[in-house]
Design brief:
TIM Barrel; 14 helices; alpha/beta; 8-stranded parallel beta barrel
């Protein structure tokens, strides 16, 4: 597997990164075993966030005393300088390190700049001057924010959703980052679980020499699948190309990416799963989504308040209430046995 450089940051690692959001769902012992195995298998880029509950703590347990051997990227969701400094101090403590390789604004709603009145970019500069962080990045789900950041010259890396289901506009962002020597970190390269073939996902992303995919892992068997690509990296073949083309056709149009920006819902609807239930039923074992739990969750949809908060928050400009209703109707047909869920 090839090594990539994340733009002007100069950070180098094999093109097979570890996304540490899912390890918050397992216990400390399991998480440490997974993280150690990832390192033993050759992974060197690990991405987490202050928002990922105890993920940073688990990374600290696994890698304290050896941070010089891996790259750690974490994030702050703070909106004020006071919050920024508090979150940074907490991250350093939990990670058991005195310096973070890459510190990122998390799910940024704007491209922070020096002198914009927020003081947020100045906090990044202050932290770097003090030796608390080495490089400055930004993560976003909103394309205009990511594009502005990539153009600004202020950010060494951009993290954005990217997979073979991405749009032409998303591809333009990837190219802009290459042109401007900005490292591109690809989150959701499995599209929140809608992509079910990791070899196709890897073959697609590995075509881009400046893109670092981070794979969300919480089970050892998932990790082993990605580690197997270290020596046998999937390449684009006619079969994979045809498969991706069909996938793109099947998932064209409006579908939920499960980013969670719309949450929480005033009516208690779990939008980031319920609004894509039709795809989940087709692409995964349907029994997993026809349990009493998910029937109860889907039954909340008729109680939608039509407040349109979810619609206004969606970075993909989806008509979320309409999407929920369509998925509810499909779900009821499946329950009634009137529609097959086979792919």
């Amino acid at each position: 597997m090839k090594e990539i450089t994340l733009g002007k940051s100069g950070l180098k690692a094999v093109q097979n990164g570890f996304g540490a959001l899912p390890i918050q769902r397992v216990d400390n012992e399991t998480a440490v075993k997974i993280l150690h195995r990832a390192y033993e298998g050759g992974m060197r880029f690990f991405d987490t966030a202050r928002d990922y509950t105890d993920s940073e703590k688990k990374l600290g347990l696994a890698f304290h005393g050896m941070w010089d051997k891996v790259i750690i990227a974490t994030k702050t969701h703070a909106k004020t300088p006071e919050g920024f400094r508090k979150e940074l101090a907490t991250s350093l403590e939990l990670l058991q390190t005195d310096c973070i390789d890459l510190y990122q604004f998390h799910q940024a709603q704007q491209c922070y700049r020096p002198g914009d009145g927020t003081g947020m970019y100045e906090c990044m500069l202050e932290a770097r001057d003090k030796g608390l962080i080495r490089h400055i990045g930004l993560t976003a789900h909103r394309l205009p924010v990511a594009m502005e950041a990539a153009e600004s010259g202020l950010y060494e890396t951009i993290q954005f959703p990217f997979s073979y289901l991405s749009s032409e506009k998303d591809l333009a962002l990837v190219e802009l980052c290459r042109k401007n020597n900005v490292g591109f970190i690809a989150m959701k390269s499995m599209s929140g679980g809608l992509i079910t073939r990791s070899d196709a996902a890897m073959a697609y992303v590995s075509q881009f020499d400046h893109v670092m995919p981070i794979w969300g892992v919480q089970r050892m068997r998932e990790l082993e699948e990605f580690l197997s690509y270290m020596d046998n990296t999937p390449v684009m073949t006619d079969e994979i190309r045809d498969f991706i083309k069909k996938e793109q056709e099947d998932l064209s149009g409006d579908f939920c990416r499960s980013c969670g920006y719309c949450m929480p819902c005033p009516a208690g609807i779990q939008i980031n799963q319920c609004a894509r239930m039709s795809q989940l039923l087709r692409r995964m074992p349907s029994a997993d989504w026809l349990t009493e739990k998910w029937q109860a969750e889907m039954a909340k949809i008729p109680g939608c308040l039509h407040c349109n908060q979810c619609k206004s928050k969606c970075p993909y400009e989806l008509d979320t209430p309409t999407l929920l209703q369509k998925n509810y109707e499909d779900y009821q047909e499946v329950l009634a046995g009137r529609r097959s869920v086979s792919v």
